[in-house]
Q: What sequence folds into this?
């Protein structure tokens, strides 16, 4: 009787291994690994830069921003096509100073070739706009 239970357990493990192997071949691995993701202030803008160490099966990246003026929800700023590993990506966000938010959250998403979306990193920037920036943002917003 122990032998029968042992065989059925081995059969279940073998079946699970076959399913995992088949799944691995049907859905090739899609992986992205970042070297870095930086946010720097440049005058009246934030400059986001990142570089990947690996981009297997990645179609594009999405840069998203969240502020109080976006109802604390992430909004897509730009979709950037994948250029391959070791490429330095840069996005300049010069629209952020139209808000009076003190915290700006940025999120980098990977869009896989099968359509799956993956959050790679989220970073917050403490930002207190100056009166000049608020005024200039208000003037620009009127036009």
A:
């Amino acid at each position: 009787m122990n032998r029968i239970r042992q065989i059925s357990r081995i059969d279940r493990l073998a079946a699970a291994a076959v399913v995992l192997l088949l799944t691995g071949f049907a859905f090739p691995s899609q992986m992205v690994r970042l070297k870095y993701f930086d946010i720097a202030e440049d005058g009246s803008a934030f400059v986001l830069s990142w570089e990947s160490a690996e981009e297997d099966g990645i179609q594009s990246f999405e840069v998203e921003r969240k502020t109080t003026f976006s109802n604390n929800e992430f909004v897509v700023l730009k979709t950037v096509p994948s250029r391959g590993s070791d490429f330095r990506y840069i996005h300049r966000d010069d629209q952020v100073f139209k808000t009076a938010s003190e915290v700006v959250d940025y999120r980098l998403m990977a869009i896989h070739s099968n359509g799956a979306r993956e959050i790679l990193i989220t970073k917050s920037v403490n930002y207190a706009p100056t009166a000049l920036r608020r005024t200039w943002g208000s003037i620009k917003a009127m036009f």
About this structure: The first helix runs from residue 2 to 26.
